[in-house]
Amino acid sequence: MWCETHGLSPIPASAETVASYIAECAGRLKPGSIQRRLNAITEAHRAVGLDSPTHTGIVRNTMKGIRRTLCTAPVQKAAALTDDIRAMVRTTSTGIIGARDRALILLGFAGAFRRSELVGLDVEDCGFGKDGLTIALRRSKTDQTGEGRKIGIPYGSNPDTCPVRTIQTWLEQAAIADGPVFRSINRHGKIQTGRLAGMDVARIVKKLARGAGLDSVKYAGHSLRAGHATSAAIAGASERSIMNQTGHRSVQMVRRYIRDGSLLRENSAGKLGL
Known about the structure:
The protein is mainly α and 274 residues long. 51% of the residues lie in helices and 9% in strands. The mean pLDDT is 89.
């Protein structure tokens, strides 16, 4: 649409056209949004067998200038660490909603699940055994072809925060034998047939964070996944074991969590004797 307005060709687009386009976008979009548009332009050209103009010097330099000018760091939700999760669990109610919420945050935390992965689980994906729970994850953000992978959830040492026991309790109390694991519950306490949406995970995490005395604005669905990686790093888990659970393919991303977990644990200020 931008090219039509300016009388320019979108495919193939010249490097100058792309540079002008993103320069104009800088007046209303964040760098991350502009980068996504560059990625889309790249894929559109590749789809018809053309070289992408987005990798040229003029486009790269324009993007660098945009980043320097806007200078915006990505806004990330806080990681819910183990103590935070325990505090959230303590705020849940004793009824059926509390049973679901406990199961959701504990499984999300222990499995390091994305929101879409968590709400996409069916009872048929869950295998309970003497050592814990094995979940067959059929599809995820980084597995669009549906090859799937298995995730192990061992029994916890504390029954109140054991993800395996809380899932079993929720399924038994809700009388769910097949279909979606996590479902909505109406105001009369009746369990619905449809599965929760990703935004419901964020809503539940925020609700429990607020009840635990945490700043709910800083927490969302990703806090469970980030909290697992950070807490595991603090506890000394290896990069490989964290990646096996989270499904990250990039070690750089996992190392970011490890660095976050080490900010206070391995800090020279703690050696000053203050």
